[in-house]
């Protein structure tokens, strides 16, 4: 919050801290806000494309410096374990599906859970896949019963130790999701992305790529001491506009362009 002081010019005070081109027009600046909605999440169609952002050509690519890039295979979900010590915190997340489809869920546990194994700078499934497991995952081993949580397979949804806070929602390639969850209890929250299970059956073709989903994600915890908003104002926003900020790449020969 910036105050102009007693009788001071607010615009002049703002210019001491913010470049005038970033000051909204209704505060005397030159940044037009007529295309922005009133409150809620900023739509990604309003984001500045990566190639136009300062430093986009350097190693400080804003997408790579802010988001974590990873992949999930069928039967081997990606899970992010988030300890919450104080009730009243707000968990926020933002993720974009780059390739194929996946389901997103949020769990809560009263137990302390160790974070998944970290590989190549990204949080990955607890079990690191070897070549045999990768092939098994692609085939889809329908006879194998997967646990609710890969990072704590002994916990079962429905017990007093594990609760499904956000039901699974299917996201498709190109989808973007901004969401938030009010943490009414202290404990462990687990964000999970997994490739949807398919019906039992055999196919004449073997497509390994369809059993792997690539995505990028970011999350943040807003401490209860710093959160002064209304719980009713928290909302999730889903869009399919990630392509508006991602660098444009030519389609692979033989691959139809998404419309």
Q: Describe it for me?
A:
InterPro entries: CRAL-TRIO_dom_sf (IPR036865), GOLD_dom (IPR009038), GOLD_dom_sf (IPR036598), SEC14/CRAL-TRIO_domain (IPR051064). Residues 64-221 form the GOLD domain. This is GOLD domain-containing protein. The protein has 259 residues and is mainly β. It has two domains: 9-38, no CATH class; 47-244, GOLD domain (Jelly Rolls). Helices cover 8% and strands 29% of the residues. A five-stranded antiparallel beta sheet has the order 1-10-3-8-11. A four-stranded antiparallel beta sheet has the order 2-9-4-7, with no helix packed on it. Strand 5 (118-119) and strand 6 (122-123) form a beta hairpin. It is globular and about 65 Å long.
What attributes does this structure have?
259 residues; Jelly Rolls; 5-stranded antiparallel beta sheet; 3 helices; 29% strand; disordered C terminus
Q: Please give the domain count.
A: 2
Runs with pLDDT <50, length 5+?
120-127, 199-206, 241-259
CA-based gyration radius: 22 Å
Q: Beta-strand level of the residues, as a percent range?
A: 25-35%
Strand count, sense and barrel status of the largest sheet are:
5 strands, antiparallel
Order of secondary-structure elements: HHEEEEEEHEEEEE
In total, the number of strands is: 11
Distance between the amino and carboxyl termini: 43 Å
Mind telling me which CATH architecture of the largest domain this is? Sandwich
Structural class: mainly beta
InterPro entries: CRAL-TRIO_dom_sf (IPR036865), GOLD_dom (IPR009038), GOLD_dom_sf (IPR036598), SEC14/CRAL-TRIO_domain (IPR051064)
Organism: Caenorhabditis japonica
Protein name: GOLD domain-containing protein
Domain GOLD: 64-221
């Amino acid at each position: 919050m910036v105050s102009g002081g007693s009788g001071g010019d607010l615009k002049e005070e703002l210019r001491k801290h913010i470049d005038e081109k970033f000051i909204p027009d209704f505060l005397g600046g030159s940044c037009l806000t007529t295309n922005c909605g009133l409150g809620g999440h900023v739509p990604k169609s309003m984001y500045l494309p990566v190639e136009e952002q300062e430093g986009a050509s350097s190693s400080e690519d804003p997408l790579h410096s802010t988001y974590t890039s990873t992949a999930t295979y069928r039967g081997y979900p990606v899970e992010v374990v988030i300890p919450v010590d104080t009730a009243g915190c707000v968990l926020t997340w933002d993720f974009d599906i780059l390739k194929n489809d996946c389901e997103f869920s949020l769990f809560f546990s009263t137990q302390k859970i160790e974070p998944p194994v970290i590989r190549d700078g990204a949080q990955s499934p607890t079990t690191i896949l070897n070549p045999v497991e990768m092939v098994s995952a692609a085939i889809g081993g329908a006879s194998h019963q997967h646990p609710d949580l890969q990072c704590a397979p002994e916990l079962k949804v429905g017990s007093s130790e594990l609760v499904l806070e956000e039901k699974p929602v299917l996201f498709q390639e190109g989808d973007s999701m901004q969401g938030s969850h009010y943490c009414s209890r202290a404990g462990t929250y687990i964000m999970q992305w997994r490739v949807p299970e398919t019906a039992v059956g055999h196919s004449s073709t073997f497509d390994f790529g369809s059993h792997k989903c690539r995505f990028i994600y970011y999350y943040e915890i807003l401490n209860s001491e710093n959160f002064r908003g209304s719980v009713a104002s928290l909302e999730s926003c889903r869009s399919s506009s990630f392509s508006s900020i991602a660098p444009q790449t030519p389609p692979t020969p033989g691959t139809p362009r998404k419309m």
